[in-house]
Write a structure and sequence with these properties.
The chain has about 400 residues and is α/β, with parallel strands linked by helices. About 35% of the residues lie in helices and about 25% in strands. It has two domains: about 260 residues, 3-Layer(aba) Sandwich (Aminopeptidase), CATH 3.40.630.10; about 110 residues, Alpha-Beta Plaits (2-Layer Sandwich), CATH 3.30.70. The radius of gyration is 24 Å and the shape is elongated.
Length: about 400
């Protein structure tokens, strides 16, 4: 049962929605135009119920099948927000908003789920309720958590929930996923090191925070390489180091920012403890004063076994058995779909984006050729999870 012909018939419409969203990117929760377009399209499809303002600016559509005897309710989620990146490639639908672009493919995710919603509202070939979820603020704003905290799961009776993301480098028409951890937890720390500033010609009269900070950067790398089990995945990356304003002045303070990623709760806790120990020890040895703010971010995106097997079977029905893999390595990026998977059983899957630039790259673009596969996956997922009795 390959790509659905009816969805292929309105591929051009889905592309047009995607291009319009791409040309008008919005950040985090400020997705009012995008959410308005989504809600308007859902209403035009004849979706039974369209609710806006869920989790601040999220949109939820409820599509009832030809029967509801099964009592099944399945949620399917797409994200709507863009990134604060300047787009550098020219195409007819290039971003019209300076400094903002859809560099992660959320425009494609939204368009594919809209296509599936149109098909499901038209055919209703399922017994139960399909809930289409359009989420704001995946890029750092925890919009998934906001929707869960707003009572979405209980309000719409969602029993299982599924998510999808495009994957550059994976051929179009292929899907990959895995049971258990599929994406990492992410934490962020902000470190200020206070020393004693002064003239660059008299370092003996100063306590140079740049030197202290440099030793902190180097020492933090030993946590992963020398104190974390090699079989446990972990990443500590220093992403910012700010200090000084003049070429002849040793600054009084420096500021560092770091990103920490892990796949298990145990490693996540251990990394934080070791980071604090390293920072305190090095600063104490030099007499510097550290101020550390450690913020917990998205949890591990953890697929449930039963739902992973089901999602894989649906993907195989669309793409063929050879084009679906269930044993990929976890991705150390993070996803706030993790909050939905903590609230309900479900699975997160990747769909191929072909030979494109990587995510969050200023030349990235979602591949429109992936649309029929993604939309067909969503439609078949609803129909297969909630089959009509013969």
């Amino acid at each position: 049962m390959p790509v659905i012909n009816r969805l292929a018939d309105f591929h051009a419409d889905i592309k047009a929605w995607r291009h319009d969203i791409h040309a008008n990117p919005e950040l985090q929760f400020d997705v009012h135009r995008t959410a308005g377009k989504v809600a308007s399209l859902l209403q035009s499809f004849g979706v039974d119920e369209v609710v806006t303002g869920v989790g601040r600016t999220g949109v939820v559509g409820v599509i009832r099948g030809r029967s509801s005897e099964s009592g099944r309710v399945v949620g399917m989620r797409a994200d709507m927000d863009a990134l604060p990146i300047e787009e550098v490639i020219d195409h007819p639908y290039k971003s019209t908003v300076p400094g903002k672009m859809h560099a992660c493919g959320h425009d494609g995710h939204t368009a594919m789920l809209l296509g599936a919603a149109r098909y499901l509202a038209e055919t209703r070939n399922f017994d139960g309720t399909a809930v289409v979820i359009f989420q704001p603020a995946e890029e750092g704003g925890a919009g998934g958590k906001a929707m869960v905290d707003d009572g979405m799961m209980d309000r719409f009776g969602i029993q299982e929930v599924y998510g999808m993301h495009n994957m550059p480098g994976l051929p179009v028409g292929e899907f990959v996923l895995r049971p258990g951890p599929i994406m990492a937890a992410v934490d962020t720390f902000y470190l200020t090191i206070e020393g004693v500033g002064g003239h660059a010609a008299r370092p003996q009269d100063c306590l140079d925070p740049i030197v202290v900070g440099s030793q902190v950067v180097t020492a933090l790398q030993t946590i992963v390489s020398r104190t974390t089990d090699p079989l446990d995945s972990a990443v500590i990356s220093i992403t910012q180091f700010h200090g000084g304003d003049a070429d002849n002045v040793i600054p009084h303070t420096v500021e560092l920012v770091g990103s920490v990623r892990s796949l298990t709760p145990e490693v996540r806790i251990d990394l934080e403890q070791r980071i604090r120990t390293v920072i305190d020890g090095i600063c104490a040895a030099h007499g510097a004063k550290p101020k550390l703010i450690y913020e917990k971010g998205y949890p591990v995106t953890r697929n449930h076994d039963k739902q992973t097997d089901f999602a894989a079977s649906v993907a195989r029905s669309v793409a063929g058995v050879p084009n679906v893999s269930t044993d990929i390595d976890p991705v150390m990026g993070a996803e706030d779909f993790s909050y939905m998977l903590e609230a309900r059983p479900g699975a997160f899957i990747f769909v191929g984006n072909g030979d494109s630039e990587g995510l969050h790259h200023p030349e990235y673009d979602f591949n429109d050729e992936a649309i029929p596969f993604g939309s067909s996956y969503w439609a078949r997922l609803a129909e297969t999870a909630m089959p009509v009795s013969s």
